[in-house]
Amino acid sequence: GAPKVLPSSNNAMSGGVPVASYVDGSGTRVPRVSLTVVDTSSLIQIRQSGLSPAEQTKVFKTLTARARAGLLHFPPQVRDELEWNEPDRPNDAAREWVRSVRAAAERAADFETVKRVLARAPLLIDVNSKRDQADPYVIALALDAQSLGGVSILSDDRRDRSDGRGGHQKLSVATVAGLWDIPVVPLAGFMLRNRR
After folding, report:
1. Most C-beta atoms within 10 A of its C-beta, which of 15, 27, 50, 159?
2. Which distant-in-sequence residues (6+ apart) come within 8 Å of 132 by Cβ?
């Protein structure tokens, strides 16, 4: 059979969140901390996934623990996107969550990096929208993130939109992140990875 990976009692904790770790050349156990940048699509997916309210609360608690440990970030544009629909969804759990962890997790992306993202992938944004869309800021934040264990993007935006002529009308976060080899994890994968 396949080899089994057993949990290590020596794994490091970062802000109460278990993280993988390794032993460096001096014999010191060092956490391998992976930063997650969150896209609006996955926060909306929590609501649309059919999870019970108790399961949704558990997901938000996991996200909160990572945010408070400094392991999860999102740009202000994610909050803005959730606030656009506030009149239609007065008690939206995703919007309330971003507001509750804003001080710990909200980070502005470097505008020069945003411009670099859009120069390479102009179809990441919907050109017909008059609003500042979060996608290029999410990618830019991930590009500029410094993390020993790397960075991934939590996003359920994985489908490119065709222009009907063999090209693209809009590229997904997953496609554009792939231009820089940034892993994109959907909500379901994030939940499985963080199941306790």
Report:
1. 15
2. 77, 80
